[in-house]
Every structure is written in structure tokens, then in C-alpha cells.
Specification:
about 80 residues, alpha+beta, Alpha-Beta Plaits, two-stranded antiparallel ribbon, two-stranded antiparallel sheet, elongated
């Protein structure tokens, strides 16, 4: 039987994001992108989770963010979900 795939959830503090783009550049799976049409209270286009199912939990985005605005959590696998 195959080992169940772990799933991850990203939390972004959009009000502290300064749109440096480091997290986007360092993500190996293109999970994140800078918003094209929304800005935070400081006037920056914040980072958004574009492909949540692609996250492998490597935490590259967490480590390169100079303002510590990203957190990654392991999501419990839903019952009956075997992907």
C-alpha cells in the first residue's frame, strides 16, 4: 500500500508582506505568486498561494522571507482521501 501524501497549508500575513518576491523565486513548485490586482495596507502587492496542492512542505519560502510572513502547517488528510 502506498504511503499517503502529506498535505500542507500556507498562512501568509499579508499586511506585513513587502512584495520582495524571494519566496516566489525560491519555491521549487511555483506555489506562490505576487498578487496582480490586490495590495495590502502599506500599498504592496502581497504574496498569494497560487497552487496550494503543489506545496511539498520544504519551507524554502519560510527561510528566505526577511519579514517572517509565511508559516507552513501540515494539514490532516481528509477521511477517504488517498491521493
Amino acid at each position: 500500500m502506498a504511503k499517503p501524501k502529506k498535505r500542507y497549508r500556507l498562512a501568509v500575513d499579508i499586511e506585513r508582506c513587502k512584495a520582495c518576491g524571494l519566496c516566489v523565486a525560491y519555491c521549487p513548485r511555483a506555489v506562490l505568486e505576487l498578487s496582480r490586482d490586490r495590495i495590502n495596507g502599506k500599498g504592496y502587492p502581497f504574496v498569494e498561494v497560487a497552487a496550494p496542492d503543489a506545496c511539498i512542505g520544504c519551507q524554502s519560502c519560510v527561510w528566505v522571507c526577511p519579514d517572517c510572513v509565511i508559516e507552513i502547517f501540515e494539514s490532516p488528510q481528509e477521511e477517504g482521501d488517498r491521493s
